[in-house]
Amino acid sequence: MSRIGKRPVALPSGVTANVSGQTVEVKGPKGTRSFTATDDVTLKLEDGAISVTPRGLSKRSRQQWGMSRSMVQNLVTGVSEGFKKELEIQGVGYRAQMQGNTLKLALGYSHDVNFEVPQGVTVTAPKQTEIVVEGIDQQLVGQVAANIREWRAPEPYKGKGIRYKGEFIFRKEGKKK
After folding, report:
1. Does the keyword Metal-binding apply (predicted)?
2. Count of alpha carbons within 13 angstroms of residue 85, beta-carbon side
């Protein structure tokens, strides 16, 4: 039994869902998202909650059971609250600023890095050393944050680079004489 899969996904107030076959469409104050499940699970909308049940006892249907329920939960969370990733920049001279739809990053290279923000995601730089990525699609928000972090991942000796807020970087000791 999947502990995650057997719990129904409750719909908060202001969020409506429509289940047609294997597709769930969720509408909320922040937008509309949809997810198409595989044929290994059955989706039902009853009593203001979406329940996911496996079809059969095969290993694949049990795998899809928990995953499909998590995907539906992410749709509901995305359209009601949204997702947010916060990044911190550490290093002398490292900074970020938004110019229109482009994030300009000064990361110690001989040139500034221009990062084009994809549609469906909002990127803001409240301070020069902070970047906030927000959106209704958890996968897209995480991928954009990872792509920004990839430009200068934190290094273990001085800790310089772009890190997630609250991320611990294991520090190493430098060479000894």
Report:
1. no
2. 24
Q: Which two tokens stand for residue 75?
A: 């749709």
Contacts (Cβ under 8 Å, ≥6 apart) of 28: 14, 15, 16, 76, 78, 79, 80
CB 44 within 8 A of CB 110: no
Per-residue pLDDT tens for 104-159? Answer: 999 999 999 999 999 999 999 999 999 999 999 999 999 999 999 999 999 999 99
Q: Work out the pLDDT band at 74, boundaries 50, 70, 90.
A: very high
For residues 92 and 148, give the distance between their C-alpha atoms in angstroms, rounded to a whole number. Answer: 18
pTM, two decimal places: 0.89
